[in-house]
Amino acid sequence: MTPIRLVGRIVLRIIGAVGAVTLFVGRGLFRLHPFHGRALAGQLVQIGWLSLPVVGLTALFTGAALALQIHSGGARFQASDVVPAIVAIGMVRELGPVLGGLMVAARVASSIAAEIGTMKVTEQIDALVTLSTDPMRWLVTPRLWAAVLTVPVLVAAGDIIGIMGGWLVGTRSLGFGSAAYLANSAAYLESWDVLSGLIKGAAFGLIVAASGCWWGMRSGRGAEGVGRATKSAVVAAAVGILAANFVLTGLFFE
Amino acid sequence: MIRTVGLHKAFGPKTVLAGVDLAVGQGESLCVIGQSGTGKSILLKCILGLVAPDGGQVFWQDRPLDAATRPDFFRRFGMLFQGGALFDSLTVWQNVGFRLRQRMPDARARALAIEKLARVGLGPETADLMPAELSGGMAKRVGLARAIADDPEVIFFDEPTTGLDPIRARRINDLIRGIVTETGATAITITHDMDSVRAIGDRVALLQDGHIAWDGPVAGMDRAAPLAGFLGRS
Ligand SMILES: Nc1ncnc2c1ncn2[C@@H]1O[C@H](COP(=O)(O)OP(=O)(O)OP(=O)(O)O)[C@@H](O)[C@H]1O
Ligand SMILES: [Mg+2]
């Protein structure tokens, strides 16, 4: 095979895969009738509520570490008093959505892929079809919407907890006054900073749920197949989040 | 009523179905036997479109069974999967009443589900268990209850008695026979168990090397040379 052919074949593959995933996500999101409300409610709890501890802890430690870093780094150019503002902007625009998204990817993409993959290899997906129920609407749609709706909420919670992490460090060991710290946090924060982070959260939620569902539905046979699907789902979700973050940051702030 | 013409399926280099022609008439009970791994389950899945065949056609009531006719078909259809295929996230009664819940309140679906569980020999105390809490044989019977829950006109049973003790197996055979004769349902049953064939089959077909190697009435199978191995007189 000539190199040009090889490149051509790879490009075609990639275009095909992107098309297939787009179609899959589009179908999953917008074919809403019949709508399985009970399944959505269950997923809102699974994906949103139960991820809160992980995302909260991640944000807390990140905000705290950020405050320490900026304090010591900022001291080099006499800027340590902007710690609260930079922690707030850094959390809200970047670290809240990205780290929150990555933690959700680890927790949720894997469990979705494992659950759907297991259903596939134990013929439960086939059984759904014979019971006149579309697996896309029953399994995929509730998960996609639950993630799109809850991850921004998780990001918002993470933003607040992260800023509080910075506040804890700032007031306990960096010598800030409590009220002054909070006032400085809010002073430089614009609403677009917050909103852009929440939009990122929705996009990352979609990426997480979509890769879990996609790989789960394509799981190979047996326990090995499910294991491979789970691994692929987490890797795809994490890489997808970081790539999407770069693209969205460019769109929002350039 | 259901007819396959030249069904073909290969996985990579391995041909599983090499032109299967099979027909089952209205109200008839057909048993399909064959060695493990010959493609009996795949045959059912190709008929249902769960696995896309590489070639051949399936007809239902003389119309092609395809994307257009399948929704109608599935509404009158029930299937027991080889491994039970119960939904892990739902309780036993929610599994059995899965289809019923789509068109009636939960309380009624539950009552009907408990009735169907009783038919397969499971008491009402099983209704609220999760599938993970069941033994293999129990899961199979719950799967059977789910298959018959909505009084289907066409039923596929993939190894209904495998993994059951002989007494339960006989009860399940009687149950299937009863359903098929009472409701006039059309049934295809896959089995390794010749007692099952005798109990529930009108006709029996042997799947071998991707073809139907023998096909005839159950009454005549004792004289059929190709079935000798299955009947234990090799
Ligand atoms: N998705 C698949 N990919 C590759 N090979 C497959 C796949 N599904 C089934 N096979 C192969 O097809 C063959 C037939 O499988 P099938 O499950 O139909 O066997 P069976 O006749 O039902 O056997 P048993 O009596 O053990 O249930 C097997 O050899 C199996 O390995
Ligand atoms: Mg089988």
UniProtKB/TrEMBL annotation, chain B:
Keywords recorded for this protein, A-Z: ATP-binding, Nucleotide-binding, Transport
Alphabetized Pfam families for the sequence: ABC_tran
Signal peptide: none
Domain ABC transporter: 2-234
Keyword presence, ATP-binding: yes
GO molecular function: ATP binding; ATP hydrolysis activity
PANTHER family: PROTEIN TRIGALACTOSYLDIACYLGLYCEROL 3, CHLOROPLASTIC (PTHR43023)
Record's protein name: ATP-binding cassette domain-containing protein
Biological source species: Paracoccus subflavus
